[in-house]
Automatic annotation (TrEMBL):
GO biological process: fatty acid biosynthetic process
Domain of life: Eukaryota
Keywords linked to the UniProt accession: NADP, Oxidoreductase
UniProt keyword annotation of Oxidoreductase present: yes
InterPro entries for this protein: NAD(P)-bd_dom_sf (IPR036291), Sc_DH/Rdtase_CS (IPR020904), SDR_fam (IPR002347)
One Pfam family linked to the record: adh_short_C2
Family: Belongs to the short-chain dehydrogenases/reductases (SDR) family.
Claim: Transmembrane helix is one of the keywords in the record: no
Protein name in UniProt: Short-chain dehydrogenase/reductase SDR
Gene Ontology MF terms: oxidoreductase activity, acting on the CH-OH group of donors, NAD or NADP as acceptor; quinone binding
UniProt-listed Gene3D superfamilies: NAD(P)-binding Rossmann-like Domain (3.40.50.720)
Length: 294
């Protein structure tokens, strides 16, 4: 966690006693690196018991070790969020250890970019499976722990689904990803309407340029293996956060803040929506973009 974010988190913890999410239980997918890792760390710092998942067992183990070294409480459930048995596996493990679920952060995902006319069915289907079907199945599995009938038994509970500016505005080479991330927004609004009467809040975050492996230079050759296929990650010619052009703002003339965001900044927006500070925010799509697209 960055020093600045640690300072902000520390101030919040002081203001809210044991932390904004003290005693609450949060499932965070895709927590082995990037935004998911940052979210796991800041949620734990704010008092949450975090159940983290990732397809990369080693990276997941490293994040769990970080959380526990800082005095946090964490449970790792490794696996592919798109697997048929994953929702039951992680929900059962969470309830067995902690007895409840307060928050689900559907963060896991990746891009598989191709121009529309060259996109085969399997490239379309896998993005839909991970970004739309997987969050739907996890949330449905956890329904008994959110649809609590008695108001006096309800705690702070929320669903946070990750979208993208690609889902709001479309993006060249991302017909599959844009369609999936647009679907996430409508899906989340439906949850807000169906589960709002149970005191559950459901919100979407649409991220813009956040410095992760998905937005790094494609030329770096980073790949992800899914269903036996290697998926090339990144954006052709993208500038790293440390690049002089990025630091001067020249690389991002379309972003009013003239820079990309960090995973910690992205995770802070997740914390906001999960916390009591957003207790009357429901069905909203929060754009975390540095002002791009306004």
């Amino acid at each position: 966690m960055s020093e600045r974010l640690a300072q902000v988190s520390g101030h919040l913890s002081n203001a809210y006693g044991r932390g904004l999410l003290a005693g609450e239980v949060a499932i965070i997918t895709g927590a082995g690196q990037g935004i998911g890792r940052s979210a796991a760390l800041i949620f734990a710092r704010e008092g949450a018991k975090v159940v983290i998942s990732d397809i990369d067992v080693k990276k997941l183990s490293d994040v769990e070790a970080e959380i526990k070294a800082a005095g946090g409480d964490s449970l790792s459930v490794a696996g592919d969020v798109g697997a048929d048995d994953f929702p039951k596996k992680i929900v059962d493990a969470t309830v067995a250890k902690y007895g409840k679920i307060n928050h689900i952060v559907n963060n896991a995902g990746f891009t598989f970019d191709k121009m529309l006319h060259t996109t085969p069915d399997d490239t379309w289907d896998i993005i839909m499976r991970i970004h739309v079907r997987a969050p739907f199945r996890l949330i449905r599995q956890a329904a008994p722990y959110f649809r609590i009938q008695k108001p006096e038994e309800r705690e702070n509970r929320s669903i946070i689904n990750v979208s993208s500016t690609s889902g709001l505005h479309g993006n060249v080479g991302q017909a599959n990803y844009s369609a999936a991330k647009a679907a996430v927004v409508g899906f989340t609004k439906t949850i807000a309407k169906e589960w709002g009467p149970f005191g559950v809040r459901a919100n979407t975050i649409a991220f813009g340029m956040i410095h992760t492996r998905l937005t790094a230079a494609k030329e770096a050759g980073v790949t992800l293996e899914i269903d036996g296929k290697k998926v090339a990650l990144g954006i052709p010619g993208a500038k790293a956060a440390t690049d002089p052009a990025a630091q001067s703002g020249a690389a991002y003339p379309h972003i009013p803040l003239r820079r990309g965001g960090t995973p910690d900044e992205a995770a802070a927006a997740m914390l906001l929506l999960a916390s009591p500070l957003a207790s009357y925010v429901n069905g909203h799509c929060l754009e975390v973009t540095g002002g791009a697209g306004i």
